Amino acid sequence: MMKKKVLALVAAAACVSSFAFATPQTQFEQGQWQIDLGAWNPKAEVDSSNWYNGSGDVSSDSKWNFQGGLSYAFTDKLALQYNYYGLKTEGNHETAGYKTDGDEHEVNLVYGLNKNFAVFAGWNRINNDLGGWSDTNNVAQIGLIAKAPLAKNFDIYAKGALGTKNTSMWEAGLGYSITPDLDISAGYRYLNTKLADKGEIGLKDDANISYKGFIAGLSYRFGGGHKAAPVEEAPAPVYEAPAPAPVEAPHVYNDYYLDSIHFGFDEDQPLASEQGKLDNFVSVAKANPTEQFKLTGNTDSKGSDAYNTDLSKRRVDNVAQYAVNNGVPASQMILDYKSFHDPVASNDTDQGRADNRRVDIWEHK
Length: 365
Hints:
single chain; mainly beta; four-stranded mixed beta sheet; 2 domains; CATH 3.30.1330.60; Lipocalin
């Protein structure tokens, strides 16, 4: 009878090693906070053959648990994240009514590699409360997040982690962006971690527990906004806006389109493929030293207006700095920033958004 009770307890146990809740982020905005709220519906499962006279897998019934988290971005690439997970399941006839009543607290540092990938590492404290028996796993973990767009406002994501205490985790699902700062997600998570060593609680070998179920949540971001890092120092002169020159008579100016320099998503340096356009601009400007050129920065519609205004400014400043570094006087350039308010294509497609990430160059005369 005692062995059956122990087996029932183990079947109901659950341990978790995880990363982000709700839609996982691969990019950040310095100074921004994120709150995650939601629930998941896990059940615990263990191979009872690790117990004397045991055989086969037994599992507890699932139960909805509260999940939550809080994140803060130190930079556009590095964030600190805390997560809480309830580890409660229901007993059934296989588990003789025993259920789990634990919880989990974890802290991770998350580093965004680009818009599609991020890595994380941290510490995970997993408390297994099995009624009359409890134990705690302290897990060091490292993992990877992958994320890609499926359609307008829809993303697919996956993440996985490996940790001490024989711990592993994977999760996959879909996310939907209601606004640039509010999204929801739904997915499925599988977790596996060490329960006990051979000889403990009647074990004839080391035992692990798997924990799996559907998960759904909501994420909200707020705050953030920062000034761009200064351009790296170089021996070339730094661009400064020229003082307005007095004119003797009013003059009506017209802008004649010259070219557009394009950028990657959330990047302020031109694509490598645009080098020829940059050099052509420098050549035309130097060949027409009495003419001025208007540089207008633009972005796609992803992100807030404030952030994109800053991004469009950084794009224009970097193109202007390149021209100055290559002998074009700063007085020949007029700078303007449009954020996402002057698209040349639809922001509903990948190609349209790529066309909108640009600096337009106009001959101003």
